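Researcher: Please predict.
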Amino acid sequence: MTSAPVILCFGDSNTHGTCPMQGIRDVRRFPLHERWPGVAQAVLGDSAQLIEAGHPGRTTLFDNRTAGGNRSGLTALNVYLESNCPLDCVVLMLGTNDLHAHYAISAQVVAWNLAQLIELIQQTPCGPVKGQAPKILIVAPPHIVETGFAASAMAGAAEKSQQLGACLRELADQYGTGFIDAATIVSADPLDGIHLSADAHIQLGHAIAEHITTLLEV
């Protein structure tokens, strides 16, 4: 009997399911069935197994001490790849936190940072076939709106986030991965301009499940 493919969903607070925030101490989280990985799992049913790996404040490479530190996606990813081996696919949705004003980097640099995570996956023999790597689905995050409690911290991020989708699409073409631009499917909630509403999670979960079905032919 062939086992169902295993998909690692690796991202930040929008993969974690953080609710739109009223302030820095607002740490509410949507229940599993309303978070996009849970929605995608429900759509796929027994044909796939999804693993949630969302961490609020996670970046591509930075520790992000303003969010408590230990937020480097590159550092954490290696642990998830090894501890959940074998994996059929890794869904990567990162980049929002890299656009924090204090990093002062462009959308193109965010994409170059994410390339290091892609290369780590492609060089790690943790796929379903011995010696091979899992497939990758890049998800460009929704556009940032500079509003709410984090507006000053994300100054300049709105424009950069609108450029990020094109940069990540080029990255997907370069590395031969799947690609979704979440900004064409959902919008950030106007409460904080960063996080997704429950309805948006449902929409995104359905879209990602559809892409996983195509990518893995499940």
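Model: The helical segments are 13-16, 36-44, 73-83, 107-123, 157-175, 198-216.
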